[in-house]
Amino acid sequence: MGESKASLDSNGPAPGNNDSPKRSDYGFHSFQDFTWHQFTGTMSTGSLAVVLFQTPYKFPGVVTAGKVIFVVDLIFFALLCICISLRFFIRPKLIVKSVYDSHQSHDEPFYLGAFGVSLALVLENISQYGVPACGPWLVRTCEVLFWIYFACILVAAVLQYQTLFVTRNFNIDSMTPSWLLPIYPLLLTGSLASVLIQHQPHESASPMWICGVASQGLGWMVTILMYAMWAIRLLTEEIPAPAMRPSMFVAVGPTAYTVTAIVSLGASASKGLPDPFLGESPKAAAATIHVVAVVAGTFLWLFAFWFFALSTVAVVLGSRKLTPNYTWWSFIFPNAGLTLATIQMGKAYDSSAINYLCSVMTAALFLGWLFVSASLLNAVRKGRLG
Q1: How much is the pLDDT for 46?
Q2: What's the rounded mean pLDDT across residues 231-240?
Q3: Least confident of 99-108, 126-135, 165-174, 207-216
């Protein structure tokens, strides 16, 4: 059990892989470490920019800081795309290996979802920060990009899980929250749709709203199946090694982003429902949907917090053995989802107490992002990245 668990809890290809490059091959060796894992960094950076835009109480400079973080995210994302493209250009067979691999010791295929989530957050930030400063052309562009994005992630979700089901035999004792990542892009579609339709005309907003609801439903149902396996794994086996415990926060994200999507889509139902809806004006139905969405979001919010609390206790208990590695980005992205869910709760209940809590959570998230970024950069500089 120990060997397979350690390999699946790792953040990169297993040591001793026959496809590893030789030290003399400087070109490939320079890009061998750029895998889908690194896009967890753009997930976290992009989600922080979303939080800074949506946080309820903004002091001067918060939106500007969000814009700066968004630009950093764009640069970071572009550089990773260039580097991973060079990796595939130098070794083309790694394209297939990175998304389809039958060896349990190779977990990179799971992290393809991080690339999809990063794209969703880029599109969401373009709508938030860019549309108010640009003309209608960007609104139309966002609509087209949304449908391209949805088509791609839906196909990817079907093919990737089909591949995993057919080619790999997993043991429950090796289960990690990274198994949730292939469905993560669909879990972001609901909140993405709720942001984009704010600027869309009704004829464009309605299909996007329906798509957002359906996508969130699919993502949430798959998540429930994965949660069951994660719970069994925690009940029957020991929790992950201390160095990998930050990845436990990944389990916070699906519920948190589902709360965010449900409540925000419920609030925009008046714009998203077709007109007429069931033969009637959508206004009455929209009000009912909004109420149900808020109740459902409240019902689920504490579940997300429960996962947050479990993960926090586990990390604290193993904090002395923590070493910088890419799982540290799990401190940011899932908890950004919890912050966004809390922001939606504050809006729904018009609660100043919840809104002040959101400000505290936003500040903690920003400081956490600075700490994680500095720690990982320092570890890369010293060659000590785990």
Answers
A1: 95
A2: 85
A3: 99-108
Q: Give yes or no for residue 22 having a pLDDT over 60.
A: no
- Peptide bond preceding 13 in cis form (omega within 30 of 0): no
Amino acid identity of residue 312, one-letter, is T
Q: Does an H or E element contain 283, and which? A: helix 282-317
* Cα distance between residue 65 and residue 52, in whole Å: 8
Tally of CA atoms within 13 A in the half-sphere of 206 that contains its CB:
10
Asked if 176 contacts 8 with a C-beta cutoff of 8 angstroms, the reply is yes
Q: Quick one: CA torsion of 371, 375, 376, 377, rounded to 10 degrees?
A: 100
Sign of CA dihedral 270, 274, 277, 281: positive
Rounded CA gap, 367 and 69, in Å?
13
Tokens of 380: 């890369």
In this structure, which long-range contacts are made by residues 134-137, counting pairs with CB atoms below 8 Å and at least 24 apart in sequence?
none
Q: How high is the pLDDT of residue 101?
A: 63
What is the per-residue pLDDT for 339? 97
Note the pLDDT of residue 332.
95
Q: Residue 198 and residue 138: Cα distance in Å, rounded?
A: 13
Tens digit of each residue's pLDDT (9 = 90 or more) over 57-81? 888 789 999 999 999 999 999 999 9
Q: Token pair for residue 80?
A: 């990773």
Strand runs labelled E in the chain = none
Sign of CA dihedral 272, 277, 278, 283: positive
Q: Which of 18-32, 105-119, 201-215, 272-286 has the highest mean pLDDT?
A: 201-215
Which tokens go with 152?
A: 């791609």
pLDDT value at 203 more than 80: yes
Cβ(7)–Cβ(104) below 8 Å: yes
Instruction: Classify residue 311 by burial, with Cβ atoms within 10 Å: 0-12, 13-18, 19+.
Output: buried
CB count in 10 Å sphere of residue 132: 9
Report the C-alpha gap between 200 and 212 in whole angstroms. Answer: 14
CA distances from 88 to 34, 114, 120, 142, 165 (A): 10, 18, 23, 29, 25
Q: How many Cβ atoms from other residues are within 10 Å of residue 313's Cβ?
A: 13
Residue where the block lists tokens 């429960």? 306
Here the tokens at position 90 are: 């130098």
- What is the residue type of 125? N
